[in-house]
Amino acid sequence: MKHLVFVALVFVARVFAIGQSASAAPVPDQSSPATSNVPGAPTPSVHTDRSITFTLKAPDARTVEVAGGDGLGSGPFPMTKNAEGVWSVTTPPAVPGFHYYWFVLDGVAVNDPSSETYFGYGKETSGVEVPEAGADYYAIADVPHGEVREKRYLSKTTGEWRRARVYTPPGYDKSPRTRYPVLILQHGSGEDETGWTRQGDAQFILDNLIASGKARPMIVVMDRGYGTRMATPPVKLGPGTPAVEVKTAFSAFEDVIVHDLIPAIDASYRTIPDREHRAMAGLSMGGMQTLFITLHHMDLFAYIGSFSGPIVPNLDSKQSLGSVPPGPFDTKTAYEGAFKNPSAFNSRVNLLWLGVGTAEPELFRAGIGGAARALEAAGVKVVYFESNGTAHEWQTWRRALNDFAPRLFRN
Amino acid sequence: MKHLVFVALVFVARVFAIGQSASAAPVPDQSSPATSNVPGAPTPSVHTDRSITFTLKAPDARTVEVAGGDGLGSGPFPMTKNAEGVWSVTTPPAVPGFHYYWFVLDGVAVNDPSSETYFGYGKETSGVEVPEAGADYYAIADVPHGEVREKRYLSKTTGEWRRARVYTPPGYDKSPRTRYPVLILQHGSGEDETGWTRQGDAQFILDNLIASGKARPMIVVMDRGYGTRMATPPVKLGPGTPAVEVKTAFSAFEDVIVHDLIPAIDASYRTIPDREHRAMAGLSMGGMQTLFITLHHMDLFAYIGSFSGPIVPNLDSKQSLGSVPPGPFDTKTAYEGAFKNPSAFNSRVNLLWLGVGTAEPELFRAGIGGAARALEAAGVKVVYFESNGTAHEWQTWRRALNDFAPRLFRN
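^ Those are the sequences you sent over. The predicted structure of the assembly is below.
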């Protein structure tokens, strides 16, 4: 019996662990648990001045620091331990938006058990959401909501079952005869197909834009932006990778999009399956992929968006990617000559949209801004967008989507 | 320029981090990376004898151990460090199925960066999938696939936007006039609405059962099994919590299911909205909740399943939950007298299903098996299922669902 009661206690302790964390003492002052936390976890807590308090119980650790995305500030931030073995630090006011972060515990990067996880840096990573005053365009609101669906499809290119996420707009199920245009929307490197709906709140941005009549109802398809052709080795990507090998990797993903994903989506959903009703956009690496793929397939896409996508005009270069400085953008030769005839490009492409955050490294601003200016000067119609004060992070890309989506499918 | 090149290198290193992890050296012998890993991560790797090799790079750590779910064996397992600062251990052969695990790094439980994360223990947790020879009922196969959707709904009970996951069966979108029965399927404590599709592979179990004609096409709704009524404090659940307070917590969730979730589902999906076409089941705490809710609402449910759900016949008891031994099950008084008239119960309820794993603590087997035997002896029709050799873990519940779902909606 003693054993049974012990088992019962252990069981119940485990059963209700979540209830216990929900009952922890509230943190002091005008701060709130981040919405990115595990439900009930009191920290990270965000103060009214956007400073953030982090805690971790680690009585036996020698050092604990907080490190993370640019918008958190110039960390890492050393934490200090109290008598109960809880380490804590309050970081300086952060930039609004979603920031990846992690603890460095005796030299090892580990997640915060109080945070939900978000796929970034090629792994599950902690994240902290810092509210932006007055910005409600990405909040869940009492408007009709679309749905985010997990779609599996078999890829002939890679030979694997692939996962995509698909946003269907409000009313999709109620209007079984209505067909919709499609935006393919890609994450950045190290992220995956969950990024736009977990970190980016794309579904709420679309819900709100559609509810206010600012955007047309559309289907948004978010794929996992990696792929290796069957029976070929994966490209070993890194700073020293020759640009031509990057091209090999992107080319496999191009075939996934063109030959596997688009047919699977058109077969599964009530799309309008023509170029005038198909857009592609992506952030960072997803922006590179968008330019690479759409400029090869203008028969498939009429709307193109690159959100903070590095401008790499020539993937046939013998240079390695890490050694490419942002040089002048030659509109005649860049991207295999896609822009060499501006009037032909303008009559074919309904929207070319390039954006960057003003707090991104100069490399991005110079490359993206320079390309936009060169294209404009050559007569190519381009929308150039700057996100004020935000870095190479999700707040830049939420704003980008909020500007980009209303411009789609207007022709 | 030097700065720009440095920024470029840092950027590209981050951009392609996932590519690098995919290119790590293969592990020796007949082992394969677990399917629960981050794509490309070589460990945890599962050997043919079901032993598992774990690794973590932590040059400055003093101790690292692996700990986790029952099926891993009687850990924690101390790891040893090599000259490169990589800690590793190969654990004894594990029970097949999905096991939660974590590293204990200088005394702190942390996730494995090589594992995807799975919500358990009230937080995001690492997990390792150990194949079961010959068991393909939960594998993704080349059969028609349903979809898993993220549904948001506003709860009048709790005053919050709630998340549910909804499985719609293959063909749902193609047959806009077909209506479907509904199974509400709940996770265990410390888990959330993602458990059944992430850890449990419920969508593939249903896809496979439906493809082979063994189960009727159905909608499966998985809700987040927690809730606190508006303007009331959350119940502080723990081993010493009086059973009556557990009842308060379950009662709030009951109202969510009955007054918020079911109406939202019936309004959003093509359900057959009557009791003969509505089932509820759950695992562990979800089984407790299922019995609590369905036995109060036999006007709403005709099919009932409790998978490893602790039998707590009387939540009005003054005892705390942790002190309740598995006593004799009085069919006259248990569950507020729901079984006191066996023939009335049998004519009203199409299926009462109770299951448990043979490797679960005796507390569970005695309580669940004892209840099943007492109900049978009293003339209540009950299906009692034992999962051979599996513990209080997901393999038990996959098998449970695979046995339970084919029995639904046959009347």
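The longest strand of chain B covers residues 97-105. The radius of gyration of chain B is 23 Å.

Shout if you want it in another format.
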